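Hello again,

I reread your note about wanting to compare the complex against the isolated chains. To keep things tidy I'm splitting this into two emails, and this first one only covers the full assembly. Below are the input lines as submitted, including protein chains and any nucleic acid or small-molecule components. They are followed by the predicted structure of everything together. The single-chain runs will come separately.
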Amino acid sequence: MTPEFDVIIVGSGPAGTSAAYPLVKAGLTVLMVDAQVDGGISAAPLAPYLTSRTRDEAQWKWLIGEDFHGLNQQEAVSPKLKTPTHAHVFRGFNESNRIDTRHFIGVGSLATGGLSNAWGCGVASLDASDLPALPFDYAELERSYAAVSRRIGISGQADDDLSSYFGLDEWSQPPLPMDPLHQRLLDRYTRRQPSFPALGFRLGRSRVAALSQPLGERKACDLSGNCLWGCQNQALYSAAQELATLKQYPGFQHIQGVLVDDLSRQPDGSWVISDRHASRRVGARRLLLAAGTLATTRLVLKQLNHTAAVRLLSSPTAAFLLWLPSMLGTPRVSTFGLGQLSFALELAAGTCAFGSTFSTTGLPMSEFVSRIPMSKRLAIELSNNLLSACLVGNIFLPGHLSNNTARLRPDGSLSVTGGLQPEAPGLMKNAEARLRRIYWKMGALLMPMSFTLAQPGADIHYAGTLPMRARPDVGETDSLGEVAGLPGVHVVDGACLPGLSEKSHTLTLMANADRIGRALATQR
Amino acid sequence: MKLLITGATGYIGLPLADRAAADGHEVICATRTPCARAHAWLPYDLRDPAPQCPAGVQAFIHLAANTAPESGMGADAEVQAAEALIQCARQASARFIFMSSQTAQASAPTVYGQVKWRIEQAVLAAGGVVIRPGQVYGGPERGLFGLLCRLVRRFPVIPMLVPAPCVQPIHVDDLAASILAVVEREDIRAEVLSLGAVQPISFGRFLMAIATHRVHTMRLPVPVPVALLALLRRCLGQSLGTKLGLERIFSLIHLPTLDTAPSLQKLGIVLRPLADGLHRSGRGQRRQCLEEGKVLLGYLLGSTPPSSLVSRYVKALEQAGKTRPAIRSPLLKRWPVLVSLLDNPGVLAATGGQDLSWRLQAALALAEASPVGARRFLGTHQPRGFVLTLMTLGWIAAKALAWRAVTPLCRPLARRLVLDAGAPRDA
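Full-complex prediction:
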């Protein structure tokens, strides 16, 4: 029996859709499956954030949810995990994919578009030095960076100190306007620019997958400030936006509600996927796994029956609060809710930290109130008076400083244990102290006690469980993500990245998927 | 036990039959109209001869009464009907429990009261138990309670009779529980049990409580001298007065006070507070949760929260499977800012503080997610200037220090503001 498709792609997130384009363009028949069962609610605010907040009596429906979703997620690390408009993005991933975590925050998505439905939109290209021992020519990846960047639309092009660090300006739209606080920060940085290189610090505009100019059906960001809750303009990139375009190719099909649980090899070398109850079985010559690093890892390890622990990379991360005293009493303005300014900080030889700062306006203030060591009533008064002059920041360290493992259990579940390399906490402390000094030079105070190290995995930058190698061993993949021992099964998501730098890795895993897709399209 | 209940479809009978069945009793409803399917039905009318007593009945509970004087049934007939039932019970060697009235007196001003008194004598002579309830209220709006609710709903004023007649309210479910407690107690025989609030309250206050806790409205109390009513009765004459309900009012005025404490103690029944009982849930838990929401949201917002926000808080609690309040104190209701004494790690991080911590966090998120919350949390869009904001920050810091100093001193008070997880809340 000849298989129904040339390629089946498991997962419709950034990796899956990026791999799909070159394949369907080359005329291959492609089936994309994901496990979305309900599309979530569409209660996202229609008016600009501050307008809805002051006027909309029903705002609780999108801030908390009619089923009080937000209240039941009190322990969640990020406000994003609490928004009812994103509930369907995260729901049920670990349970359905049988992933257990210890000291590790494991997040994934069953939804169409995957985690890109609710991402921070941070983009960066990794240069050759970020990816040592790459089993293919870096120029291949560069070509894909260009293709993917143009397709998804990124902004932040600026002739600044981070231009070469991001390496994306060639394909970028102009940056979005900054709020007055970020403007002030950048002004101070520019004025005292000569003193910063010696401190190993570079500041520049954030490069983000948010449109400052329209692209296709999507409109440009109008600074309505609803980034966290759902963008009405679709200015923020989500892989879910790709499906309509992909469906225009005659060879492309997309099915929802398929949770792949098993792969099986047919005598003719083709592969069949089936879900938990084996109620649906489809075959293809090749399988591309893009289910998200954690889910993909389990599928592959289970197929290999590989029970030894594999290393899972993630970026140790922390968050902090910056206060600009000179901006005290400044009114709240509607502004972009994701990263506005980013920094790169050299910590040690070959180890750099990366981070961005955000406006506090689009965030729920209760997030801050519960962290202030005061009674809530006073903490509210404090937030009210102080936070309009504050920014929140995050910082990421390279993935080699993480010490997480993923192990297939005999029952077929994946157990993930989080940890840090011994030097990581010290480097974080160092980063905190230096950032405090550096930001003070820019007139901003890194608030005491605000610098908080997150649990491993909270970054949701997972990678490297099935790394691409020139000569792959068991549990590794070749230059096209093809799993050693499973011919025809390719890992195209974060799982196959051989390394994880401190930079946001989404664009890289998309570019890599595009690269693999291009290569496979010519190998039919 | 097998119980035969007359009047089981009535105001008291309905909850009694349901509760008895829930407690595991077998219930036979002796009523004119068919009862709920859950119980056995024995067609019975006060005007007919006593029914064939089903075998095995261990207790007769006689609730049926002729409340419509125009039915044409005479007082004697009603007494005879009761005597026939007592005879039935005696033959079956079953116990007999009779629902009498606070008005039962040989010289009662109403026929109703006289009839009750005459039946009481027969019951006591046969070794049965007589229950004299005070003002029965709560549950569905039926009977006299239903009439009062409708009146309060309809009229903008509440007559406060001067001098004030008093009532001793008892919730219909508490009365049902008391009757079933009597059923269980073989040792109680040939006795009159008086059941109702130990402290009588004025009838006017009872009506005001209906307005506040049941109808949720404001009603203007208007003093009405009893002498005026007496004059009116004289002018209208006896029959017209009865028609207008004046007689009912006079029977109220002449109500003898019940000494209920010994009976309640004997049965081990604790009556719920009037405000709780008047609430639709009958338990007042939702009301207490609403009060808690008002306190917590008021504390966070620094002003009285909108009622929509308060009920959203209670909905959130219910969604989380929390139906009981965690805090309740007249002090907190008066000064929500006192929640500060609880809102610190000393209380919230201690054992048992988790629940309150969750509630505060929920109230916090809900308070923020409203236009009033946006103003309070996000601040206004108007610039306030550097100096003013700095002064405000200083003031907040001073307040924070003051609370920090006061909190340890107020630990004993703080303990009294929290409800213990195991403590009964209905009392």
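For quick reference: Chain A touches chain B at residues 50, 53-57, 59-60, 63-64, 67-68, 70-72, 74, 326, 328-332, 361, 364-366, 369-370, 374-378, 380-388 (CB under 8 Å).

B.
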